[in-house]
Amino acid sequence: xxxxxxxxxxxxxxxxxxxxxxxxxxxxxxxxxxxxxxxxxxxxxxxxxxxxxxxxxxxxxxxxxxxxxxxxxxxxxxxxxxxxxxxxxxxxxxxxxxxxxxxxxxxxxxxxxxxxxxxxxxxxxxxxxxxxxxxxxxxxxxxxxxxxxxxxxxxxxxxxxxxxxxxxxxxxxxxxxxxxxxxxxxxxxxxxxxxxxxxxxxxxxxxxxxxxxxxxxxxxxxxxxxxxxxxxxxxxxxxxxxxxxxxxxxxxxxxxxxxxxxxxxxxxxxxxxxxxxxxxxxxxxxxxxxxxxxxxxxxxxxxxxxxxxxxxxxxxxxxxxxxxxxxxxxxxxxxxxxxxxxxxxxxxxx
Length: 350
Hints:
The chain has helices spanning 3-12, 17-29, 70-74, 119-126, 148-159, 184-199, 217-229, 264-275, 291-300, 310-314, 318-332, 338-341, and strands at 46-48, 51-53, 57-59, 80-86, 99-102, 107-110, 135-139, 165-169, 207-211, 234-237, 257-260, 282-285, 304-307. With 350 residues, the chain is an alpha/beta fold. The chain has a single domain (36-349), classed as Alpha-Beta Barrel (TIM Barrel). Helix 5 packs parallel to helix 6 and helix 9 (291-300) crosses helix 11 (318-332). The chain is globular. The two termini are 35 Å apart. The mean pLDDT is 95.
């Protein structure tokens, strides 16, 4: 990271986290971010769920909730982008403050509650998306919806024509009882509705399911079974956690989902276990801040990875740094491709 970038991050950290994030978004819109495009090489190019990626390092949902910086993000080092979550109707989310930096832990806690501009507005921005980028949308449900399961299908129907993939998010801890939809019967019914809506699109999409890291072994087995039988393209493991083990920061007891470095081990163990329960490809998320972290997720069973919280501490150029570092690690260990490395270190996490 350059001195200018370090100074910029230090300045952003002088503001409350949500304001700082808003300023970072405006900086990207003003063209202050990287412009080199995705990092790629013969070794990094990979395919997941039929999608060709220049590299397997993706941006996790939550950074660009309303698809307002797609063009600047497409010029960074990421191999793919996920925006949202989007709900059928606009909603303000939970009261502020709702985002907290845990600097001593290289982590964050959020309780946003799916604040977004709504599916129609987001679809309009997706329609103007940059050519060539791989872009997905995180599907959510309105807090006051009478039929949350139907909300996911509704957002897909509204936005699906402008996407490369979509993710069913039933694992956010910040919408009351949303995680209850991860139960076997509820999840089966929800996914059946989403897949029916997907089949009606002019171009059906790969559909992923994003799960929580706090599932019991039995719950994880149920999710794996339902996901496999539902015709999903893959699973994203994992969302934020409700656990607070070992945290040092002053905000450690704030309500919401914890992300960042403390989540790495827990989410990677869930990922590795999940890879033994389903043949579906997996995207590993949770605590990635270095190329070594990304490589560990891949060797634990992930075909691709995503990050977000580490950008708070490492800046937007971190994506390119991780992709370049991953290329070197693959070469060091004699892997000619990402796919060759997937799962080769799984046993160490089980």
